[in-house]
Design a protein that fits this description.
The complex is a heterodimer of chains A (about 200) and B (about 550). Helix content of chain A is about 40%, strand content about 25%. Chain A has seven helices and seven strands, in the order E-E-E-E-H-H-E-E-E-H-H-H-H-H. Chain B is of the alpha/beta class and about 550 residues long. The N terminus of chain B is likely disordered.
Chain lengths: ~200, ~550
């Protein structure tokens, strides 16, 4: 793998269905909800592709004390938000893996190892990976996740890899693919379609 | 995941074609349900078009689109469609939750490596891909034009493809041409008859009620079209007329004038006119008695052409016939027989034998009714009179042929218009036309019935009709009648009800491998040339070449 991007964090716990990573990054580079990321597994023979579905910042005693202290100065806020080593945790759902230049839209044979570096999936790869909608079943099959919001965010991100004129047709096609899974629940489908348009 | 290209490399790809959809359900009897490809616009489809289905076992199925419908994966969707202003939602729904579907009736199957398709006995598996049939597919089904296969028209939207009627099979059983008035029945019939004459497979006897077949036919806009006699000026078609005056006025070339002597008419000939003449059952029954008592000149005596006053008086006095019955018969005969100029006193001539001989020599006969065509009773009388006698000769000839004493008579197709008047359920059981329709080709005589009210024809007769050429019909009873006795043809009802009013027909039955909607070929100069008519400059050039061959430069 030729890595040219800055890692967004390291894996802290994982399974074949997903992984959790921790990161300490300045705000503009924090991974976003619905973003695609990638991490090596099997000693670099495969790369697990994940979709970030949750971001959380754990609290600690100092943070709780500062929050209850009342007015904070600008310096105190900047110190707490930028300088303190408070890990930001992100959770990613596995939506496929790449091996020998081919994407597989199933769970990987093995999860990544602890502390493996997690990278954002670059634009070209997002485009290639999402050309087919075969990653959707893994999202629809995920339990207790904000599936509909995740879908909308991921698909909109994928559409941005297309020239402007092709974005809408891509979203229409994506909407149709989702509709196959959501045909029985028109309320959910309507919400998703609305989210895709906004 | 297996790619379509992998399957194509195994099954063989249909080059350059977009699939219409996928088989998702159905049955052999009810037809196949095909879910349309989301990329396909449903508005591109039309009932009556052909499709080809690649089966899983490398068989190719041919079918016809019989219905097109809109469906939804969620039954609630029709109750809560997307906002009309939200085109994005509509686009997403269209092709996914809301989709197009079509009903396909499978007709034929082509096994791998086979050349000839055969009738279907199974259906393609789930998810078989459905393509629009190509010209090559349709040609493979309908074969090429040859001596016995006659180009009748082209499938819709396939102008360059020929649908060829198997004339051998067409004349082997009784056939029908049906359609509302003004839908082109006569043109199609004339086209088919031209094909039959050209092929020489059978002779035809056409009872031409409205002078549509013999000579110079007027179409819409006063355009004149050639009649059969003009298409075959070499004697293969003769025109016989009942009304010399009208035929001459029309410039028709006449080969014979038909006169029927009173003494040639039997009660059976008049019986079919009972309804038209207003004869009661008692009066009809009395005809047989009068014929027996009065002898061959019975009609002349009833019309008092001959002295028969005493004879008639005796009949009344004997009590075998009531004076009122006799009076009524005389009155009705008087008003009918006197008006028919082709009915003449005396024994008449040997017209029936002459016509039989001509037919047996391979000459087709168009019997023009002239002004009598407007009198249904005249048409029924003459058609019944001739058909009964010619059929009797065919029966006799066939029986002698079976005994090795005569040649087999040439197949004959009798063409009758307003057929429901002859084949009404009340009378079809005991008329010659009902017999002919039922006995198939036992005696080498079949019918071609041309009618606008097929519902008026006896069901049993309809079920014996081998090939049905049907133009637009919109009466429910007529549509039902056309499909009676045709297995699995119910699905074609929608196709029939949506034909254009001109030059379109649904052909199904014995003479075509599968039902087909055709735009019938143009009846114009190109048709004349195809039949072999030589006109104008070409005729002059031929004459010149002939003269040069005979006499030198």
């Amino acid at each position: 793998m030729v890595v040219t991007q800055v890692p967004i964090g390291r894996v802290t716990r994982c399974s074949t269905r997903g992984f959790v990573g921790a990161v300490r990054l300045p705000e503009p580079d924090i991974p976003a909800f619905g973003g695609f990321c990638v991490v090596e597994t099997q000693h670099g023979q495969a790369r697990v592709i994940g979709l970030i579905y949750d971001l959380s910042i754990e609290d600690d005693e100092l943070a709780r004390q500062m929050a209850s202290a009342g007015d904070l100065s600008r310096e105190q806020l900047a110190d707490a938000q930028t300088n303190r080593q408070v890990p930001l945790e992100f959770s990613a759902l596995t939506v496929g893996f790449a091996r020998e230049g081919t994407y597989h839209y199933t769970l990987p044979p093995q999860p990544p190892l602890t502390l493996a570096e997690v990278y954002p999936l670059d634009v070209n790869e997002v485009h290639s990976f999402t050309e087919r909608f075969d990653f959707l079943p893994l999202i629809f099959g995920a339990d207790r996740l904000p599936v509909d919001d995740l879908l909308a965010a991921a698909l909109k991100q994928a559409s941005l890899t297309y020239p402007e004129k092709q974005r809408l047709p891509y979203l229409v096609q994506a909407g149709r693919e989702c509709a196959r899974f959501m045909a029985a629940d028109l309320n959910r489908l309507e919400n998703l379609i609305r989210s895709l348009q906004t | 995941m297996t790619d379509a290209s992998d399957l194509d490399s195994y099954f063989g790809e249909r080059q350059g074609e977009t699939p219409l959809g996928t088989v998702v359900g159905g049955s052999l009897s009810a037809g196949l349900r095909v879910k349309l490809d989301p990329h396909l616009s449903i508005e591109r489809l039309a009932v009556g078009r052909y499709v080809v289905i690649q089966g899983q076992s490398r068989r190719t199925f041919f079918g016809i689109i019989t219905d097109i419908l809109l469906d939804a994966a969620n039954p609630d969707l029709p109750r809560r469609p997307p906002d009309p202003s939200d085109s994005f939602s509509a686009e997403v729904y269209r092709g996914s939750v809301a989709y197009g579907a079509m009903q396909v009736t499978p007709m034929l199957v082509l096994d791998e490596g086979a050349q000839e398709p055969r009738p279907i006995k199974t259906i393609p598996a789930h998810f078989s891909r459905v393509h629009e049939a190509t010209a090559a597919d349709v040609e493979r089904v309908f074969g090429r034009e040859d001596q016995s296969h006659f180009f009748i028209g082209s499938p819709l939207d396939m102008e360059l493809v020929q649908v060829n009627l198997d004339l051998g099979r067409f004349v082997a059983r009784s056939s029908g041409v049906f359609g509302k008035s003004g839908t082109g029945k006569s043109f199609i019939t004339r086209t088919i008859l031209a094909g039959i004459v050209k092929s020489g497979l059978a002779s035809s006897l056409v009872f031409d009620m409205h002078n549509d077949y013999g000579w110079a036919v007027k179409g819409e806009g006063q355009h004149q079209y050639k009649g059969l006699r003009q298409l075959f000026p070499d004697g293969r078609v003769n025109v016989v007329t009942l009304d010399e005056e009208t035929s001459r006025a029309r410039g028709s070339k006449i080969d014979r004038i038909l006169k029927i002597g009173y003494e040639q008419i039997e009660p059976e000939d008049v019986e079919m006119l009972a309804g038209l003449m207003g004869l009661s059952d008692i009066q009809t029954g009395a005809l047989y008695y009068l014929r027996r008592r009065l002898g061959p000149a019975w009609i002349a005596k009833l019309l008092e052409e001959e002295q028969a006053g005493e004879e008639l008086q005796e009949l009344v006095l004997s009590g075998r016939i009531l004076p009122g019955t006799l009076d009524a018969i005389q009155r009705k005969f008087e008003s009918f027989f006197r008006r028919m100029g082709f009915l003449v006193p005396g024994k008449g001539d040997e017209a029936v034998d002459d016509i039989f001989n001509r037919l047996n020599l391979g000459t087709s006969i168009v019997l023009e009714f002239g002004r009598y065509g407007n009198t249904l009773a005249a048409y029924v009388l003459v058609a019944n009179y001739l058909t009964r006698r010619i059929h009797a000769r065919y029966v006799d000839r066939m029986n002698r042929h079976a005994g090795g004493q005569a040649d087999e008579p040439r197949p004959l197709m009798i063409v009758i218009e307003e057929a429901h008047k002859f084949l009404d359920p009340q009378i079809a059981g005991h008329t010659i036309f009902g017999n002919i329709a039922r006995e198939l080709r036992k005696y080498n005589v079949t019918l071609l019935i041309v009618d606008q009210r097929p519902s008026g024809i006896d069901d049993e007769v309809m079920s014996q009709i081998g090939t049905r050429v049907t133009c637009l019909l919109d009466n429910e009873a007529d549509i039902r009648a056309v499909f009676s006795g045709v297995s699995g043809a119910g699905a074609l009802r929608e196709v029939l009800a949506r034909l254009d009013t001109r030059q379109q027909a649904l052909i199904m039955g014995h003479a075509v491998p599968m039902p087909v909607v055709v735009r019938t070929r143009d009846y114009d100069q190109s048709f004349y040339s195809a039949i072999g008519v030589v006109d104008g400059e070409e005729r002059k050039a031929r004459a010149k070449r002939g003269a040069e061959t005979l006499f030198g430069d």
